[in-house]
Amino acid sequence: MKGLMQDYPLTLQHLLWRMDRLFGRKEIVSRLEHGVHRSNYGELVERAGRLAGLLSRLGVRPGDVVGTLAWNDYRHLELYYAVPCMGAVLHTLNLRLFPDQLEFTIRDAGDSVIVVDRSLIPVLNQLAGRLPALRALVVMNDGQPLPEHGLGEMLDYESGLAGERPDFPWPRLAEDDAAAMCYTSGTTGNPKGVVYSHRSQFLHSMATLGTDSVGLSERDAVLPIVPMFHANCWGIPYGAGMAGSKVILPGRYLGDAEVIVNLADEEGATVMAGVPTIWINTVQYLEKTGRRLPRVRTILCGGAAIPRGLMEAMDRLGLRMVHAWGMTETSPIGSFANVRSWTPAGAELDQRLTQGAPAPCVEIRIADLASGKELPWDGQAFGEIQCRGPWIAAAYNHRADPDRFTVDGWLRTGDVATISPDGYITIVDRTKDVIKSGGEWISSVELEGAIMAHPKVLEAAVIGLQHPRWQERPVAYVVAKPEFKGQITGEEIREFLRDKVASWWLPDEVRFIDEMPKTSTMKFDKKALRATAEPLSQATPAPGS
Ligand code: AMP
Question: What phi and psi values does residue 496 have, to the nearest 5 degrees?
């Protein structure tokens, strides 16, 4: 017997309907170069209609891909809704990719129109003459002169919208139609395209409303400090639209703690989201200035492991971090580290520091790195995390990648973890980053966390370097807090670690650097560290040996 329920497609058009009919007055605040811009959901829906009209006038049809090269602001949010709701596919371009990779993603996705922020024209201009398939370029600008470029004709976004009607006839869509795509930041080889469907984004938005996830509600004001090209801005633009939350967008100022704290304070942010490096900066700023953000209820943090010292510092500042794990391929929600009702008070911090338990709709297992066999959830055995669910990628755009997708339908994440009997995941490393020393594994993530607990340390990343006897040995790259620069030694750090990790985990060398290289999504860039790393000094075999 079949259920007798309506065949209602799960598409982002439902979110547009909610924003229009229920939350028209809810504010969208954007920090632009020339100050704060205010609009609301009502205006967004109207402008999204005009935008869809403009794009279809430019020849965009259902299934076509529209690229965006833009900061976190209200116009980008309009594109987030207009493009998928007209049946086209939103491709948020990673503005920090090298030109060749940017070109690759534009071609691989098949972008037919690109909408670019005026200030990012120079980024696109590096590809002048290399984008023959592009049908049109639209520039988001506020009447300022455009920088010199060789990209050909550019249509002005605002004049284009002014010439259109707001009541665009949104077509009927199927829930498995593509809605958006993001490319992984790809540590090796070309980036890989993840193609989200309306259904996956709809269900993922529902998930952001759950109390044991982000718990977005109409009463929230959410400030994502996540580039809008990174995993659909962690699904926050759609989650906020579904819930009716106020949205605060930091423009291009993601790395500026003062701008962020001002925005959060003045606009009454209740939820903020970002990778650990954002919060390392924020803690420094709050401690230095004595400022506080009492209205913020949740700091959602993922993308990299939260160092214990960071969570403790945030706790002291009254900012409660919720640790989440996920990836571009998982939309990105995978797991959340909420404390269980039966967890004793003394174990709460440890539990909050894990990568958490699988979110509803996400199934997770770990598989032995060598044999691929499923491992027990005993908190000891570690293997690669594999996951499946309605918002987990089943393939990449134009590539099958059988080594990333198992024959029985699971995504191989490349993350190595243990899982406790209660289902809490602890990431030990990326498969590419684990250090193998004398036949045993060393977790670079754990070592980094331990080093960053040192009071004089701001940031630390650990990589394995070749060693003639032990295969690999750990080397730590450390950035001291500004006030301790030049006043900390490698021996001091090794001494600090002595009662925290096994003696054979102690880094052979501690190398102090002024700045940690970061990826386009603001994570520590170990690939860059590896590329320029000097070999281990004691690893050089003695002459004649
Ligand atoms: P991306 O697709 O760029 O978001 O990168 C996803 C990767 O970031 C994951 O596969 C993990 O290696 C890492 N990651 C995400 N969240 C966490 C976390 N909470 N702890 C440790 N690593 C994480």
Answer: -60, -35
Alpha carbon distance 108, 125 (integer Å): 18
Q: Compute the distance from residue 139 Cα to the ligand 1 centre, in Å.
A: 33
Confirm whether 65 is domain-assigned. Answer: no
- Which burial class, exposed, middle or buried, applies to 219 when counting CB atoms under 10 A from its CB (0-12, 13-18, 19+)? exposed
Q: Give the predicted TM-score (pTM) of the model.
A: 0.94
How many angstroms separate the Cα of 14 from the Cα of each of 4, 84, 199, 238?
Answer: 21, 12, 11, 11
> Which of 468, 476, 416 is CA-nearest to residue 437?
468
Query: Per the domain annotation, does 518 fall within a domain?
Result: yes
Query: What angle, rounded to 10 degrees, do the helices at 198-208 and 13-21 form?
Result: 50
Average pLDDT per 10 consecutive residues for the chain, totaling 545 residues: 96 98 98 96 98 98 98 98 98 94 96 98 96 95 95 97 97 98 79 97 98 97 97 98 98 97 98 97 97 98 95 98 98 98 97 98 96 96 97 93 90 96 95 88 93 96 94 96 94 95 94 95 92 82 42
Length of the chain as a residue count = 545
**185 C-beta closer than 6 A to ligand 1:** yes
Contact 282, 275 (CB under 8 A): no
Q: Which residues contact 341 (CB under 8 A, 6 or more apart)?
A: none
Domain enclosing residue 470, as ranges: 433-532
The answer, yes or no, to whether the previous bond of 332 is cis (omega within 30 of 0) is: yes
In sequence order, which residues have a C-beta less than 8 Å from that of residue 402 and are 6 or more positions away?
none
CA distance 212 to 338: 7
Is 227 a pocket residue for ligand 1 (Cβ < 6 Å)?
A: no
Which of 105, 331, 415, 425, when mutated, tests ligand 1's pocket best, judged by the most ligand atoms within 8 Å of its CB?
415
Q: Is 415 in the pocket of ligand 1 (CB under 6 A)?
A: yes
Work out how many domains the chain is built from and give that number: 1
The CATH number of the domain holding residue 469 is: 3.30.300.30
Whether 72 lines ligand 1, by a CB cut-off of 6 Å, is no
Given the DSSP bridges, would you call strands 246-249 and 27-32 parallel, antiparallel or unpaired?
parallel
Note the pLDDT tens digit of each residue in 509-521.
999 999 999 998 9
- Would you say residue 469 lies in a domain? yes
Domain assignment present for residue 338? The answer is: no
User: What are the catalytic residues?
Assistant: 184, 329, 436, 441
